[in-house]
Amino acid sequence: LNGAGRAIVRVLVLVAAGCGGAAPGSPDGPPSGDTIPYDTLGRYGLFGSPLAAQQPAAGVLPYDVISVLYQDDARKLRFLSLPAGQAITFDATAPWQFPDDTFLVKTFYYDRDARDPAAGRRLLETRLLHRKDGVFTPYVYVWNDDQTDAQRQSAGQTLSISRIDAQGAPVEQAYRVPSTDQCRTCHLQERQVVPLGPRTRQLDRPFDYGAGPENQLAHLAALGLLQPAPPAPDTLSHLEDPAGTGPLEARARSYLDANCGHCHNPGGAAAPSGLFLSWETAQGIALGLCKPPVAAGPASGSLRYDIVPGQPDESIVLYRMRSTDPQIKMPQGPTVTVDAAGTALLAQWISALSPAGCP
Ligand code: HEC
Ligand code: HEC
Predict the structure, then answer these.
(1) I need a labelling partner for 118 at 20 to 30 A (CA). Which of 44, 53, 185, 332 fits?
(2) Sorting pLDDT into bands at 50, 70 and 90, what band is 33?
(3) Residue nearest atom 9 of ligand 2, based on CA coordinates
(4) Nearest ligand by distance to the CA of 105
(5) Residues near 78 by Cβ (< 8 Å), separated by ≥ 6?
(6) Longest C-alpha distance within the chain, in Å?
(7) What is the mean pLDDT of residues 62-72?
(8) What are phi and psi for residue 270, nearest 5 degrees?
(9) 253-282: per-residue pLDDT in tens?
(10) Is the pLDDT score of 335 beyond 90?
């Protein structure tokens, strides 16, 4: 759109908001319908000004998940926005259902100096899922160097990033923004693009909305955004923070669920492998225990089983997680570095599995 076109769209949005009761978001609400996708993130009205502060507009709610997807140590901000008067269909175990015109938003960034968050952020990309006519579509916006706005991309992009890590060492790195085809590899479940994080087992945790920590499910329910209302917090089955102090088994399984389970389940991209790493999978061969890989070869490092109880270094799961070779590495996708904490956790878990060895 040229400048004049944009102005006309904006006026239409204002008029629609004036007549219909604004959707949550900016005063004119996030735009909807045929105007989406916009070329720039700022046009959605999901955030206040300046955009880089990522302050959610009215009606846009921040949230966190319990077990995060590793993306080269990038940090993330997550938000959801529902159209006015609409609610999420809550389920204690199954994925939630969202109304049309739901926006789910995830912004990736690095602290410019990991020792000092006050030194500012380098925003990288903002990912959106927007639901229209019952279908979620993924969009990705890449932040400009000036950090004034983010531009829509679909082919993916590699950014050159300079930052200072937690040890005070300067880091020069490539950061890969995924293509929208890559979004689909992970978000496609049973041939439909779906949200992966916002569900009971990932959101049943505290979040500080400004008045001290509060359970996220209770907060959403109090706003009328979950129908039917969930039972009391802490009565529901949920994941454990992989970096926390919970039981080893639950932390490892939570890590696998968030980092592998969206592909490794019967409705995901890795279904033909028969290796199922989501939370529901019972301990056994489907979880990889003494399971021979579907395709032997270099990707297996000539190892025999996905997981050999008691023997992390004999386990293909760890061999592939420790690789950065695109033909071998797991998870498949945009990451370029190995998740040191994640591989250490899984090594600890596999070491503790018994009885040791495979027949
Ligand atoms: C390697 C797998 C993977 C890829 C590639 C991927 N996602 Fe996701 N995405 C996830 C997982 C897992 C979550 C939930 C965990 C989290 O938020 O850390 C998630 C969360 C999100 C969220 C927050 C709402 C939700 O579904 O939890 C949005 C929005 C999103 N992704 C959009 C995108 C878009 C757009 C792309 C492509 C540009 C993309 N994702 C690529 C796996 C992936
Ligand atoms: C973006 C999708 C995707 C993600 C995320 C992903 N995988 Fe995979 N994985 C695949 C596909 C597709 C295959 C089958 C082709 C192959 O072996 O390369 C596979 C195969 C495997 C295999 C061989 C299994 C067998 O029995 O044949 C292992 C082991 C594996 N993945 C481990 C993992 C682990 C561990 C994670 C999480 C840290 C993970 N994967 C995340 C897509 C994914």
Answers:
(1) 44
(2) low
(3) 270
(4) 1
(5) 62, 63, 64, 65, 104, 105, 106, 107, 197
(6) 71
(7) 97
(8) -100, 15
(9) 999 999 999 999 999 999 999 999 999 999
(10) yes
